[in-house]
Amino acid sequence: MPHPLVLVCVTGPESTGKTTLARRLAEWLDTEWVPEASRRYAVRKGSELLASDVSPIAREHIELADGAVERVRARGATALVLDTDLISTVVYARHYYGAVPAWIVRAQRDRRADLYLLCDVDVPWVPDGVRDRPENRAAMCDLFRRALAARAAQAAGDARTVIIRGDWATRWERARDAVASLGIGRTPSEA
Prior knowledge:
By secondary structure, the chain is α/β, with parallel strands linked by helices. It has a single domain (about 5-185), classed as Rossmann fold, CATH 3.40.50. Helix content is about 50%, strand content about 10%. It contains 7 helices and 5 strands, in the order βαβααβααβαβα. It has helices at about 20-30, 35-45, 55-75, 85-95, 100-110, 135-155, 170-180; strands at about 5-10, 35, 80-85, 115-120, 160-165. Strands 2-3-1-4-5 form a 5-stranded parallel β-sheet, with helices on both faces.
């Protein structure tokens, strides 16, 4: 039986520092991070995402995450960092297309992280060629909060959520401390 692996998911609306935080946490934990599947998919597609793209994005996330789990387990690591997960796919699909395939909803319930770091929108939105929605960021963040709260209500003992806000240094400290509270990672003085 494989050893337990702690999954840390950095999630939230676009342009909130998720990728930077995921990379930094993975480095601090001496492990891998799984890149955001929807971003990779959008870059390859090169045009607006449609409802028909939701399932391929979810399948790509699963493939990326499963491959990373195998690699980090093989080398004896104790944690994996996800730059979003299927909860993000569910939130965006419902918001932009009004529905999400049932198989993705089931998969996100089965594939939960141990800790969710929800990045707040209190940092400036920065365009990058893929991001396209600087408006209504607070409303989108609220959709993530509600999705994570609903998930926790469905399953006793479900993953903990920590809101990550503040300047970049504060965000890092809060994320690192939340991860360290799981008994993994180096001490803050080693950060």
